[in-house]
Amino acid sequence: MGRREFFVKNGYWVEPNPLFSDDELVAYRQSMSNIMDHKYESGREPMLGRNWPEQTDSNGLVQINNAWWAGGVIRQLALNSRLGKIAVELLQVNGVCMWHDQLLYKPPRSKNVPDGGNVGWHQDWNYWRVCDEPDMITAWVALDDVIVENGAMMVVSGSHRWKQAIKPSDRTLDMEYTLSQVTIPKGEKLDIVYCELKAGCVSFHHAITLHGSGPNLTQKPRIGLAIHMVADHVRYTKTNGASHSNLKVCPREEGAFFRGEQHPVIWQRIPYAQ
Ligand SMILES: O=C(O)CCC(=O)C(=O)O
């Protein structure tokens, strides 16, 4: 089964071979470490995120939103056209633009807080309803090996067809609670798949696919970059009453496409008129 067919059926895809070389990975890890040390090549600090820019909870996940603002090789990775081309093929759209990215640091296990770095079950589109259609996808790049033991992301295969299976919650890090809130449609089952990735490999998931990740039980952090992309035909809407932090830097009118500084094209088949 090809990537596109697999993605349509299951709502996710794991690229089988690394897309980045060891040298590139060394540079990405260095860039991540610089950002975490508050050193930004562009001089621009990424957006506020969980545990960022202050690491108030040393046992919790660090989530640096719009890390690509910091420039350097992390920006190049976030806007990598090979990832965009695969995303276009999976979504079967004309093009994809940057929505936002997240540099993710899941700390090593702490005895005191064994589930400290968890990400509860969720559907991304619940948080992206300023977009009028869920033609949105995430490329999750492993900057080091990601395995079950260090908290690999899990997806529920086929859940991209379930529409809204869970409501947004304020207990977003609680895996047991969020799982208990999932509505499984009649005739469907909870088919949980771990996205284990060798360093340099990439998984893709649809904006409606249910996903989350458990604790890092190893002594090393789990590190990765999630690149969230929006199809170039998706428009801004206020009708869902939703908001999104991107709008603070990039306000829009009802019905406007996501274009401009915050939404550079990552890949397009036919360039849109500016
Ligand atoms: O890194 C994780 O474990 C979860 C990431 C996530 O929720 C996402 O990429 O949408």
For this entry, give a set of tags.
22% strand, binds 2-oxoglutaric acid, globular, single chain, four-stranded antiparallel β-sheet, Jelly Rolls, seven-stranded antiparallel β-sheet, alpha+beta, 6 helices
User: What share of the residues does DSSP label as strand, in percent?
Assistant: 15-25%
Helical fraction: 10-25%
Secondary-structure class: alpha+beta
Radius of gyration: 18 Å
CATH class: Mainly Beta
User: What general outline do the C-alpha atoms trace?
Assistant: globular
CATH superfamily: q2cbj1_9rhob like domain
Number of strands: 11
Helix segment tally: 6
CATH topology: Jelly Rolls
| Main pleated sheet | 7 strands, antiparallel
Q: Which whole number gives the mean pLDDT?
A: 94
Name the poorly predicted regions. none
Question: Any ligands, ions or cofactors bound here, and which?
Answer: 2-oxoglutaric acid
Structure in words:
- By secondary structure, the chain is an alpha+beta fold.
- It has one domain (3-246): q2cbj1_9rhob like domain (Jelly Rolls, Sandwich).
- Helix content is 19%, strand content 22%.
- It contains six helices and eleven strands.
- The chain has helices spanning 3-10, 22-36, 72-78, 81-91, 175-180, 246-249; strands at residues 12-14, 62-65, 95-106, 119-122, 136-142, 153-156, 192-194, 202-206, 211-213, 222-231, 265-268.
- The strands form two sheets. Strands 1, 2, 3, 5, 8, 10 and 11 form a seven-stranded antiparallel β-sheet that branches. A four-stranded antiparallel β-sheet has the order 4-9-6-7.
- The termini are far apart.
- The relative contact order is 0.23.
- The structure holds 2-oxoglutaric acid.
- Residues 104, 119, 124, 138, 140, 153, 211, 213, 224, 226 line the site of 2-oxoglutaric acid (AKG).
